[in-house]
Amino acid sequence: MTTTVNISPTSPLGVADHTLFVCKTCASAWQDGKRLGESGGQKLLHQLQQLAQDWDLRDEFPIQEVECMSACNRSCVVAFAAKGKLTYLFGDLAVDGSASAVLECASQYYVKADGLLPWSERPEALKKGILAKIPPLSQ
Hints:
By secondary structure, this protein is an alpha+beta fold. It contains 2 helices and 8 strands, in the order E-E-E-E-H-E-E-E-H-E.
C-alpha cells in the first residue's frame, strides 16, 4: 500500500514526473509478528514531510510512502525515480539527521536531465549506502 503526499504537476498520463519513495517499514521493532511503536522509516518519512513544507520542489517532487522496499537489512531506505532518468535506491540512512540530505540530493537529481548523481556531488549521508542505480526504461 502506498500513499502520496504533496500533490504535484503530472505528465499528460496523470503520473508525477518525479517521486521520492520512502520505506515506512524500515527499522521496525517486531514482537510476536506485530510492529512495536513507530518504525525508523515512519520517523524519517515524517521528518521529510515536515522539511518538504518549505522545500522549493515540494510541488514537483512528491513524497510517496511505501510499505516495504525489501532492503530490510539496509534500513532506512529511500529512492528517487523519474520518467527518462536513472532510478536510485539508497539505504543505511540514519533515522535522525538524514532528511535534509535526502531533500538536497533529490534537488540535485531533479535538475539533472539523466538523473546522474556523481558520488562527489552527493550530500555526505548519501555517498555511502547506495543499493541500486537502475537505468531508465526505454521509451
